[in-house]
Amino acid sequence: MLTDDELTERLTRRMLSAASPSGRLRLRLYVAWKRLAWRLTISFTSFVKRAIDLAASALLLVLLSPLLLVIALLIRRDGGPVFFRQTRVGLRGKEFGMLKFRSMCVDAEAKLKELLALNEKNDGVTFKMKNDPRITPIGRFIRKSSIDELPQMINVLKGEMSLVGPRPPLPREVALYSPEDRRRLLITPGITCLWQIGERQGGLLEVGDRNSIGFPEQVSLDVRYIESQSVLKDLLILIKTVPAILFGKGGV
User: What is the pTM (predicted TM-score) of this model?
Assistant: First the structure.
């Protein structure tokens, strides 16, 4: 299957071969202008998106610092480290350490192999288990409220993540990706995204249940976001993340 750039290049060559010398010049200038305008638009959008990421993540870390301190103390009382650093795959396949408040027992990764047969996700790529025995008491609370994801604001500050974008996958998940699935790695991963808030039809006020969205549809929604991303769309996703968390339909 041809990419958009390859299709455009092929159509341009055909039109050039059929045009007069002056027509070919005008066509070349038009195509060059359209490409320049597109690159400028993408660069400007990326600049604004990064500026919002930096300002918002820094502000939230300061405003939420009392809550973060209380949660850290509660986790510490539960035993083990406060933070859980997990290797994830980011932009163009580059790995980084994604931060979370620890919500599982210390040897959770080792116990995962014993639980893979109980995976509730039939796609075989991602893992989900309703009553995961590895989750600690405080972990259940911070997971349900999505507080465990707040340390990822540090990843946003570092440029490893964005506020909005496809969720960063695990290396073992990427190993199972098809070429189509790998399109999710074309942009910086985010804390929240379309399928996290359950937006499937593109409705302005649509907030659905993310748990009903399987992996193939997650990929489809991530690709849709990549192809139509804008600052306004990011703001709408961030706004809808709040009710998604409050009503237990999704969240980060």
Answer: 0.76
